[in-house]
């Protein structure tokens, strides 16, 4: 792609880190799976948990597409959506944004300097998560009794006594590719701190261990509430910071810290 130099912004939301590429002036965008994988290489490229590409939209303020570090596509990324919304609101002064994603049309709002994103309604039917066969999604037929929740991407949530000692790397890598998940899955390990507070550690599909995951926080909050463990509003302490999830009638709202790290340019010819 980069026959000419390509500018990007490095951002993170609670330590979940992103390369943001603004392609609103390129019809169709510039990103490919191979290029995303090259940029995502933490040794030979830039490194990220997800790459977010902004594109123009006919029916929204912008379109957002997400890639994982292995070059696969992600249908949703809550933390990158929050980061990009904060960036665009900072550029334009807008207090609300509509964002077209593979998940559907999302709404972002600035509430007293805090950027909230409505991640939409949770998906709880087995076919749409998607799972390989019919089952009770609140109690998946896997050891450890996890719950399955879709947030535009699949999540498998384990409730454990102490998330800090959960075998995230070993178990996460294994569950990611369990045959129950035809499109693989993100894997969450959560413990209840209080009825309004969860501790969460995450293995992300296509990326591995990350310091936080916005859609994972939403999925975990939904599963915890449906199992009677928490209320509808929870603080989720991830390894990289605290996220807040509020499950309202109009969807699952997510907020948390956002940071811009640097702006830089890929060398011309990078990834070719
Ligand atoms: N970091 C994310 C979600 C990551 C997407 C994922 N790896 C997938 O393949 O679905 C977030 O903040 O939601």
TrEMBL record:
It catalyses: (2S,6S)-2,6-diaminopimelate = meso-2,6-diaminopimelate. Pfam families: DAP_epimerase. SUPFAM superfamilies: Diaminopimelate epimerase-like. The gene is dapF. InterPro entries: DAP_epimerase_AS, DAP_epimerase_DapF. It is found in: Cytoplasm. Catalyzes the stereoinversion of LL-2,6-diaminopimelate (L,L-DAP) to meso-diaminopimelate (meso-DAP), a precursor of L-lysine and an essential component of the bacterial peptidoglycan. The active site is at residues 77, 213. Homodimer. Its EC number is 5.1.1.7. Belongs to the diaminopimelate epimerase family. It comes from the Bacteria. Keywords: Amino-acid biosynthesis, Cytoplasm, Isomerase, Lysine biosynthesis. Substrate binds at residues 16, 50, 68, 78-79, 153, 186, 204-205, 214-215. The lineage of its organism: Bacteria, Pseudomonadati, Pseudomonadota, Alphaproteobacteria, Rhodobacterales. NCBIfam families: DapF (TIGR00652). This is Diaminopimelate epimerase. Its main location: cytoplasm. Pathway: Amino-acid biosynthesis; L-lysine biosynthesis via DAP pathway; DL-2,6-diaminopimelate from LL-2,6-diaminopimelate: step 1/1. The record marks 155, 204 as: Could be important to modulate the pK values of the two catalytic cysteine residues.
């Amino acid at each position: 792609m980069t026959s000419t130099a390509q500018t990007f912004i490095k951002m993170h939301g609670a330590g979940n880190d992103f390369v943001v590429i603004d392609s609103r002036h390129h019809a169709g965008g510039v990103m490919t799976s191979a290029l995303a994988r090259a940029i995502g290489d933490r040794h030979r490229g830039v490194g990220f948990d997800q790459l977010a590409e902004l594109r123009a939209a006919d029916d929204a303020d912008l379109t957002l597409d997400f890639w994982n570090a292995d070059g696969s596509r992600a249908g949703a990324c809550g933390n990158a959506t929050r980061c990009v919304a904060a960036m665009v609101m900072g550029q334009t002064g807008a207090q609300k944004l509509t964002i077209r994603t593979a998940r559907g049309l999302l709404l972002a709002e600035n509430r007293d300097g805090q950027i909230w994103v409505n991640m939409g309604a949770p998906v709880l039917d087995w076919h749409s998560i998607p799972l390989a066969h019919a089952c009770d999604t609140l109690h998946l037929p896997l050891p450890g009794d996890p719950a399955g929740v879709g947030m535009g991407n699949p999540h498998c949530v384990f409730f454990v006594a102490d998330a800090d000692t959960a075998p995230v790397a070993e178990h996460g890598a294994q569950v990611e590719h369990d045959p129950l998940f035809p499109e693989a899955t993100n894997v969450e390990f959560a413990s209840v701190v209080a009825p309004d507070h969860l501790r969460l550690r995450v293995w992300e599909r296509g990326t591995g261990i990350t310091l936080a995951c916005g859609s994972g926080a939403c999925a975990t909050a939904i599963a915890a509430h449906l199992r009677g463990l928490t209320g509808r509003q929870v603080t989720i302490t991830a390894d990289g910071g605290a996220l807040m999830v509020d499950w309202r009638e109009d969807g699952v709202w997510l907020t948390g810290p956002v940071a811009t790290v640097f702006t830089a340019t890929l060398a011309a010819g990078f990834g070719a």
